[in-house]
Amino acid sequence: GLVYMDHANDIEICSCLIRNSGSCGIFMDHHAQNITIDGNYIEQLGYIGICASGFSPIQGAFASAEESYTNKGHRITNNRIQYGGELVGHGCGVLLYQSGDNEVSHNIITQMPRYGISLKGLRYKIMPGTLCGTPVTWENHWDFLHTRNNRIAYNDISNVMTDSQDGGLIESWGVGKGNVIHGNYLHDSGIHFSFGFGIYLDDASDYFTVTSNVLHHLYSTGEGKLWMLIFSKGIGNRIQGNLLVSNSAAIA
Question: Can you give the pTM of this predicted structure?
Answer without folding.
Answer: 0.97
